[in-house]
Design brief:
The complex is a heterodimer of chains A (526) and B (324). Chain A is of the alpha/beta class and 526 residues long. Chain A folds into 3 domains: 10-98 and 178-255, Rossmann fold; 262-353 and 440-526, P-loop containing nucleotide triphosphate hydrolases (Rossmann fold, 3-Layer(aba) Sandwich); 367-439, no CATH class. Chain A contains 18 helices and 22 strands. Chain B has a two-stranded antiparallel sheet with strand order 1-2. Chain B has a single domain (2-306), classed as ABC transporter involved in vitamin B12 uptake, BtuC (Orthogonal Bundle). Chain B has 13 helices and 2 strands. The N and C termini of chain B lie far apart (64 Å). By secondary structure, chain B is mainly α. The chains are: A alpha/beta (526), B mainly alpha (324).
Chain lengths: 526, 324
């Protein structure tokens, strides 16, 4: 059985730390075919510190961390742990070198208990019984030492994500990790949970662990890290002490040019009610109620944001509004029509002027293998403009796509290119272009900037505000609080399938929303 | 008394019919728990049945036949693994290819070697088959009416493979739930990425699982040609591999419920044999075709949702690759 180091002797640890960094990377190179994912990346992480790693999507952060975890092999370069050169042909070598990683998508076996998940790969013998008993004792101690208590016999799928994340961290610590890599750890947490999480990270730092925090949230970098490494297009473009930098400087380094972090917009001028949901109840295929008695209205000329931790019914609400699923109770009124009673499908709703940019772009928004020009007409392909008799009018389709690409700055502006070959941001811009081009009265948008880089985020946000200013209504569902706070004129907060409160955009703060997202009822339920 | 004898004999037949099903279903359990769909049960069994009968016919030893049967099924399992694990091929297509290949290859080789119209010679020499093991005092017990018959017919008199198959149920349960290998096997069928990041080889585990499946299929096939009957005939598995797969799903990929499912299927089969030509009250004589279809009709009914939702291992059928 691998040694489980709980209390390394402090003096020895300090001595080691003073001489060598816990982890050092020198000139890491990695290519995947034509993609140059890492270009001569060097960085150095001290023990007893929290080191931030930021960069846009595709900047090469994940590749780099997967190399450190032995998941991928570098083409060139060296990895040193405590000053000693190591080769990491597979994760087990990284684990043996004291490296642990918590992936963005948890690596947990969902129908296993917490205990089984933790011991998987470190069972301590051919028969389970002895190993499980030893692990239980060790985990209880780890839980107390780091504030990481988790019910060990609970089945993982029944735990909230915050606790699942603890299981991942416990897995790494149980294997004796001294270097802990956390990939976008706060994506699934409420602001309050994030605060707790950071307290736990601080405790790990006190214990002499080296923590690498991979994130795209500048605010988190500023609030918790000691040093930060910025990556762009596979290369390191800066390594700075956090104290000596600002959010603006980091953002500019990430993108390579000046960026606006906040959307500029004037006050909203709400007009008539365009969309009205009344007592909506949505159940999933297992008959579990996901949306409970939700009512709200959406007026012309306003952006209404729906905030909430992922998985609290926002997705289901959005799908019901768009017509992808039928609510089991309630009614949706849109421009004098009854969408539920009339059983209008998404196509009919689009025709009435209710457009939808779905949350999961690749699953329901586009066909990645189709060309951009075909994706640009999906859902509108039967409109007269794109047809000539029974045939599709190719020339019109190409011209239409070119116009959309130009207006929405889609790069490269090549209608014939396979959609999957575009970056996430450009895919999303094309989807947005498609839906806005149809001149809808109401636009439903789910996670408009998921997997989208900062430059494109800025563009997408400006377009949404422009749509509002043109007298349309926008319903924005997002788990990114910054996005909701920056865009929404009114904010509805969902928790456990219910709207637990409504806040005016101007009066909203992260703390206030965070409490409501955790289920604390806010002022005047909608 | 007459009815009682009939019931005991039907139950004894149930156990004999259930044996190859159970072996194949357990084989499938190991494979599918690791995430590899085991549609090749049929082909592996058939291949083993042929190899066992052929070798036993030539050497005169059922044990050498067993070795050949197991060896053949292992090789076919490795072939499937090479296609589906190493090269990430489609598991259903690869398995069907093996099934079709074996269905043709067995009779062809038999024709070439023995020239008996695609069969192997009748196994009637001493030691060419796995004979029934008669338990102590079974003959005497037969005289004592009620428990005696039970002892003599139901418990005693089956061949070794039958007892081995039954013993494999608790053994499989123990391996699956009480050992390191079992934990990893269950994990790799649910979330191979979790296994990989825990520092364990996904492909290594899946190969082990496929080999265990080959081993058990080999025993099942050997049983068909050298224990249940006396030689190999064309298509002698007759869909038992698929039926075993159905039993596995019905048993929710768990050893004990799978045993139950196998016994149920085998019981309808045994019952069907008994019912042939028997006049039933009200309905009269039921046509043979209808009775023979009974186990399959039952399968469809049961799998069509009579037993609640069967949740398959989550990663089943998906070739593993690090880059999704």
């Amino acid at each position: 059985m691998r040694a489980v180091r709980l209390n390394p002797c402090p003096s020895v640890v300090e001595d080691l730390h003073s001489i060598y960094p816990a982890l050092e990377l020198r000139g890491i190179e990695k290519r995947f075919g034509a993609v140059h994912a890492n270009r001569g990346v060097s960085m150095s992480v001290a023990a007893g510190s929290i080191h931030g790693l930021i960069g846009e999507n595709g900047a090469g952060k994940s590749t780099l961390m997967n190399i450190v975890y032995g998941f991928h092999q570098p083409d060139a370069g060296e990895i040193l742990v405590n000053g000693k050169r190591v080769t990491l042909p597979a994760p087990h070598a990284a684990i043996a070198a004291g490296i642990g990683m918590v992936h963005q998508h948890f690596m947990l076996v969902e129908n296993f208990s917490v205990l089984e998940n933790v011991v998987l790969g470190a069972e301590g013998g051919r028969r389970l019984a002895g190993g499980l008993a030893a692990a239980r004792a060790a985990l209880e101690k780890l839980g107390r030492d780091y504030g990481l208590e988790v019910p060990l016999d609970a089945v993982v799928s029944e735990l909230p994500v915050g606790l699942q994340q603890r299981v991942e961290i416990l897995k790494a610590l149980y294997r004796g990790a001294e270097i802990l890599i956390l990939d976008e750890p706060t994506a699934v947490l409420t602001p309050q949970e994030t605060t707790q999480f950071f307290q736990m990270l601080a405790r790990l730092r006190e214990q002499g662990k080296a923590v690498i925090l991979v994130t795209h949230k500048l605010r988190e970098i500023m609030s918790i890290t000691d040093r930060v490494t910025v990556m762009r297009q596979g290369a390191v473009v800066g390594e700075i002490a956090t104290k000596e930098t600002t959010m603006r400087e980091l953002a500019e380094k990430m993108v390579g040019r000046a960026v606006l972090l906040k959307v500029e917009k004037g006050p909203a001028q709400p007009g008539e009610v365009l969309l009205e949901a009344k007592n909506l109840v949505v159940r999933n295929t297992n008959n579990v109620t996901r949306v409970k008695d939700v009512s709200f209205s959406l007026r012309a000329g306003e952006i209404v944001g729906i905030a909430g931790v992922a998985g609290n019914g926002q997705s289901e609400l959005l799908e019901a509004l768009a017509g992808m699923t039928a609510p089991s109770e309630g009614e949706i009124r849109f421009r004098g029509r009854y969408l539920v009673r009339e059983q209008l499908d998404p196509k009919a709703r689009r025709r009435l002027g209710l457009a939808h940019v779905p949350e999961d772009r690749l699953r329901v928004g586009v066909v990645a293998r189709f060309s951009a020009q075909l994706n640009a007409i999906l859902g509108y392909h039967d409109r007269a403009a794109y047809n000539r008799g029974p045939l599709l009018d190719r020339a019109a389709i190409v011209a239409g796509c070119e116009a959309k690409m130009q207006e929405f700055d889609v790069r490269p502006p090549n209608p014939a290119l396979r959609l999957g070959a575009f970056s996430g941001g450009n895919q999303q811009k094309l989807v947005l272009a498609r839906e806005i081009d149809a001149d809808p009265a109401v636009l439903l948008v789910g996670q408009p900037t998921r997997g989208v880089d900062i430059g494109a985020i800025e563009f997408i946000h400006r377009r949404l505000v422009a749509l509002r200013d043109a007298g349309k209504a926008v319903l924005l569902v997002s788990v990114e609080l910054d996005e909701i706070l920056g865009l929404a004129d009114r904010i509805l907060v969902m928790n456990g399938g219910e709207i637990v409160g409504e806040v005016a955009g101007a009066a909203a703060t992260e703390e206030k929303l965070g409490l409501m997202m955790a289920g604390v009822r806010g002022e005047g339920s909608a | 008394m007459e009815t009682y004898t009939l019931i005991v004999l039907t139950l004894a037949a149930t156990i004999r019919v259930a044996t190859p099903l159970l072996l194949a279903a357990l084989a499938g359990m190991f494979s599918e728990r690791s995430g590899v769909i085991d549609l090749g049960l049929e082909g592996k069994m058939l291949g083993a049945a042929f190899a066992a009968a052929a070798v036993s016919a030539v050497t005169g030893s059922a044990w050498l036949g067993l070795a050949a049967g197991v060896g053949t099924a292992l090789l076919l399992g490795l072939l499937l693994g090479f296609a589906c694990i190493t090269h990430r091929g489609n598991q259903v297509v690869a398995a069907m290819a093996i099934n079709i290949m074996v269905a043709g290859l067995g009779p062809t080789l038999a024709l070439a070697w023995f020239n008996l119209g695609g069969q192997t010679p009748q196994l009637d020499g001493p030691g060419q088959r796995f004979a029934g093991l008669v338990w102590p005092w079974a003959q005497q017990a037969r005289e004592a009416p009620v428990p005696g018959l039970l002892y003599a017919e139901l418990l005693s008199g089956h061949n070794l493979i039958v007892y081995v198959a039954l013993a494999l149920v608790p053994l499989s349960a123990w391996v699956l739930y009480r050992t390191r290998f079992g934990l990893r096997l269950r994990a790799v069928g649910e979330n191979p990425l979790a296994v990989d990041t825990a520092g364990i080889s996904v492909n290594g585990l899946r190969y082990q699982a496929v080999l265990i499946s080959g081993l058990l299929c080999g025993v099942a096939g050997t049983y068909l040609s050298t224990a249940a009957s006396a030689g190999f005939v064309r298509d002698m598995t007759a869909g038992k591999g698929y039926l075993a797969l159905a039993a596995l799903i019905f048993g929710k990929w768990k050893p004990w419920p799978t045993l139950g499912a196998c016994l149920l299927f085998a019981f309808t089969d045994a019952l069907a044999t008994r019912l042939q030509g028997v006049e039933l009250p009200l309905v009269g004589v039921v046509p043979v075709q209808f009775i023979l279809a009974l186990p399959y009709a039952l399968t469809v009914l049961l799998l069509a949702g009579f037993v609640g939702k069967a949740v398959a291992p989550k990663a089943i059928g998906v070739p593993y690759s690090k880059d999704k």
